[in-house]
Write a structure and sequence with these properties.
295 residues, mainly alpha, DNA polymerase, domain 1, hpI Integrase, Chain A, three-stranded antiparallel beta sheet, 58% helix
Length: 295
């Protein structure tokens, strides 16, 4: 169980871009849940059913946790099971039918356009790995990909003549997303110069390869982002998902319509995309206050 929960925490850091404080909360919630299971002689997450979950919530209440805290615990464990089902480690979720109170959705952290430019300019593209890392970040920001989608790209998924990338998203849903001229230029350079050098005559179907032609891992790409964030003197916590959030927000700030952003992000429900409109409204208020003569 410890290994599975650690895999989930790694996913939250890399894929979801959780802050240090949020990660501490999730880790604490998971530890309490595992401790409860072990005290009740449950050593396999597949053995947990709804009755166990309800008993766990009663135990939390007896310990004095507020309704809000208990709701957070449910969200943590629901996310754990959702992740493990997607990874085919668990068959079903015992938390699926457990109701939780509605809690306000936190706005994602984003970077300014200048911060993005500083980050994307950090790699040394004279070196093969610098070409690869630059191309990965350019495509992630240019197309708003999830990190799992980025590292899964195959050579056949990118069309540099038409400037688009074919992405296999959640639920095996395919989408076509445009990429910009800068992403195209560095990706072409990587394919022609850096990738053959990295592969050293090894065959690989993946666009972005690491050692022995294997695809980049989520953990490795997260470390790359951290490395270039430090090189660009970033004061905020930068994760791969920050680039995806920034992609969506910068499009909306530039005048893109919500439906188009929804399509490019691969959101099945537009309500998921609407979180970015809150950020854009803040931006519009700032612009109004700065430039309107009667503000």
């Amino acid at each position: 169980m410890d290994e599975l929960t650690q895999n989930y925490l790694d996913y939250l850091i890399i894929e979801k871009g959780l802050s240090d404080n949020s990660l501490v909360s999730y880790s604490s919630d998971l530890a309490k849940f595992i401790t409860f299971l072990e005290k009740n002689r449950i050593h396999d997450l597949n053995d947990v059913d709804t009755t166990v979950i309800l008993a766990w919530l009663i135990d939390l209440a007896k310990k004095g946790l507020s309704a809000k805290s208990r709701a957070r615990h449910i969200i943590t464990i629901r996310g754990l099971y959702k992740f493990l089902i997607a990874e085919k480690k668990i068959i079903k979720s015992p938390v699926k039918d457990v109701d939780i109170p509605k809690i306000g959705l936190a706005l994602p952290k984003i970077m300014s356009i200048q911060e993005v430019e500083d980050l994307l300019d950090a790699p040394d593209i004279r070196k093969p790995k610098g070409m690869r890392n630059s191309a990965m970040m350019e495509i992630m920001y240019g197309a708003g990909l999830r990190v799992s989608e980025l590292i899964s790209l195959r050579l056949q998924d990118i069309n540099l003549d038409s400037n688009f990338v074919r992405v296999m998203g959640k639920g095996s849903k395919e989408r076509i997303v445009p990429i910009g001229s800068k992403a195209r230029t560095i990706t072409l350079k990587w394919i022609k110069e850096g990738r053959p050098f990295q592969l050293k005559k090894i065959s690989s179907a993946y666009l972005f390869v690491a050692r022995a032609g294997k695809p980049m891992t989520r953990q490795s790409f997260w470390k790359i982002i951290k490395k270039y964030g430090l090189a660009a003197n970033m004061s905020k916590n930068i994760t791969p998902h920050t680039l995806r959030h920034s992609f969506a927000t910068h499009l909306l700030e530039g005048g893109a319509d919500l439906r188009s952003v929804q399509t490019m992000l691969g959101h099945s429900d537009i309500s998921t995309t609407q979180i970015y409109t809150h950020i854009s409204k803040d931006y519009l208020i700032k612009m109004h206050q700065k430039y309107h003569p009667r503000s």
